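1st attempt posting a full record on here, be nice pls
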Amino acid sequence: MKLNLPSWMTAALLALGFIGPALAQTLPPEVDAALARAKVPREALAALVLDAAPLVSGKTAPLLSYRANAPANPASVMKLVTTYAALELLGPAYTWPTPVFVDGSIKDGVLTGNLIIQGRGDPKLVLERLWLLLRRVQAIGIKTISGDILLDRSAFALTPQNAGDFDGEPLRPYNAAPDALLINYKSVVMSLLPNYASGMASVSFEPPLANVQMQTSVPLTTGKDCSDYRGALMADFSDPSRIMFKGSYPMACGEKVWAIAFADPASYAERAVGGMWAEMGGKLTGRVRDGRAPAGLKSVFEVTSPSLTEAIRDINKYSNNVMAQQLFLTLSLNQSPQQNQNPASLETSRMVLQNWWRERFGEQDVPVLDNGSGLSRQERITPQGLARMLQTAYISGAMPELMASLPITGVDGTLRRSRSRVSQGWAHLKGGSLRDVTALAGFVHTPSGRRLVVVGIINHPNAAAARPALEALVDWAVKEGGKEASK
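the predicted structure (as tokens):
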């Protein structure tokens, strides 16, 4: 049974108990119209709009409830679950250590033995921080390593995966797999800069990768169309030992930056560490390889990551998949002083997060989890489950950190280009998109001062075209919430 009632009447009937949320099945006309334009049926949408703090506002009835108990694939909106659980389980000040061990003796600038870098899941061991780590190695008197550099990745127990398994796009940085020693998201950043006098464009690469030949210039052309400069370059990334270009670069494009996933992600860390150590003037008689820190060996120092609060800002603002997966795995990482006893795994992290959910919210709406990032065809959650979690988060001590991590509509992050003028600057939302999925969820602020939780998920082959329907839902919440508050 469907009721085509005005939202105010639906809310009143819900408040009086004459109908239940399952029957409040009306949609705002602007949302209906956007779905129709996208050729997406109503039944592909699941949505819920309600007060963020009903016990404070006294408004317990939802403004809108449409298939709110239907499990749906939320795409990257699942990052909300992972990041809020992490804020509660780990705390906003949590940091990831990366210990460094010396297995040997140091004399006259030479380490006779092995240097060991142990990954503990740091999601943001980017190039600058890798440089600082190696600089500290040199600061303790090591200029030459007469032995090997061992990379200890044993903190995570992961099944090897092909970067192209998810969508056949192995060179897309969003497909990078998690790693206990994740360096620079396993990506190569190329900067192209035209030199008009020479007729060539210079190409620089970060990081320097050991044993990789990199072409440092390409011919310029007089073309003015920059819409497909990547195609014009005719890049060849198929061979991990070289990066080459068979094409040219349009002069009118100016400076461009292009990030790709390295063709052989399994060897990326070894190449990055070896390349940077050599660029810093360090010498290595052995090689960089996988290994483990001997039991009982104490670290000489460790570098510390930015805080969890900073990490979740990158995860949610910019929808960083591999950082989200690193955080998800950290939920099951053994933090005891005994190293390498219970490595983290996706299976154990699923159990940890689902146990947390049951303790906080009961058995209802327990999410179906895969890797915690939303880059999955298996993950599912209901709008009412997600909304309950967001309501709980709103009145929790973690609310400021969680809300500040979300993109602001029309202002920053993945929602910077939002076309809506009604909700611009009025909503903190996490977006999500996959093939057949588009979603938005988070907090909406109204001009009257009311705070709402909004969840909208569309699962349909035309989901990408229906994004305006979710934007219309947010706009409606901004306007309708203000109306309801003024009554």
